[in-house]
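ARCHIVE CARD
SHELF: 3
SLOT: left
DATA:
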Amino acid sequence: MIKLYNDELSGNCYKLRLFMSLIGLPYERVPVNFYPGREHKDEAFLRINSFGQLPVVDDEGYVLRDAQAILVYLATRHDPTQRWFPSDAQVRGRVALWLSVAEDITRSASAARLHDTFAYPFDIKACRDTAHTLFAHIEDHLADGEIEGRGWLADNTPTIADVACFPYVALAPEGGIMLAHYPALRRWIQRVKALPNFIGMPGIFAAGIDPQPC
């Protein structure tokens, strides 16, 4: 069985829990206290991932770090439908593009959340400004897609691109990044939440985080 080295409050760990729930893939959680325990920097964990970062998966001895890379691996190795990472070259190119955007969201919206929630010493204005710039681009992309009858980031159906981008967009208000001016983005969040086997994490369903105008 796959082992997921996991912290319940990490959006990057959550996107893996979410994806494995969506495809019905069983796994074992191995708790790692990110804050305040900082167990991801302990010697024992550094032997698993020398970068000292979460998440990490161990699939019968195959160890892989980085949330986006793990999504690609899980979708390729464990999704027999190949729905979530289609083999079409153009779709895969678009998925890869959005996985890169997910990293940018992590460096901005997630960093703002770490600043506000855990007092990480980030430049909060720069984080929020960058996140708003990203969200404006995503808003335009989704709004154009809705006009064309497409509700997802990379294809006509949901892919790992949507899973990768979802957590830190939905949790953005925890970093002071409100979603009131992004109606298409909020509708996309609701579509993700409506997927069969969707699961949440702390903050996703909280009244102040749910993507309503504010």
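SLOT: right
DATA:
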Amino acid sequence: MKNKALFPLLEFKNLTVVKGRNKKILDRLSVNIWEGENVAILGPNGAGKSSFIKSITREYYPFPGKDCLFRIWGRERWNIFDLRFLLGVVSNDLQYNCTREITGMEMVLSGFFSSIGLYNERIGARMKKKAGEVIDFLEVGHLKDRKMNEMSSGEARRFLIGRALVHDPKALILDEPTVSLDLHSFYKFTNIMRKIAKSGISIILVTQNLPDIIPEINRVILMKSGRIYRDGSKGLILTKNNISRLFNTPVEIKKKDGYYYALRG
């Protein structure tokens, strides 16, 4: 899928990532994602979704090859700290590492320093103002003085999003963001995702659950065995045949209010 009116956020061509001696966790993967797009990457456990995200954030590097293209915003080489200011990332690994005795406000402010918590950093009035605005936007102002390790999963996750948003990234990567959330927290979280998407920040959502895919996401990439299985508009990709084959399970697909659900076939 290519839109000439937009600038490529990332360009991956024949991307192979090897773990250990010879295990391919990404196998000649090729995909472009364009600035301004909201995209869902859907697949079962072991499909390579998280490895794909770690390639974007430069935690994984591809196996070198003449036909390999590995660009983010048109560049192959990045200072990792510069990249982190353009890409906000929220993952379950990050949430595990951030479950500490620091307040929600401290967590958001730490986004200015790419740290987890504050360590004698100088916090200016502009930073405090911006952090307060982000916290209010995420509707967690009443929790800003609560410790991260005293919050529910859904509450803590919104402060992690605040940490990612505080430096105005162009795109937000959410890796399995609704894992461990109860039904109330799930609805609150998806409403926040919709609010972020409407604000103009691109969302790249990685998930194995169809209901995570908010109506503002128009493109879905299916991943299986380290490769792109299908890629296209949401209505064409989220079909009975595609999802049944992706998860090796017969399902029926139901759509309601812009959301998709997989029911046992």
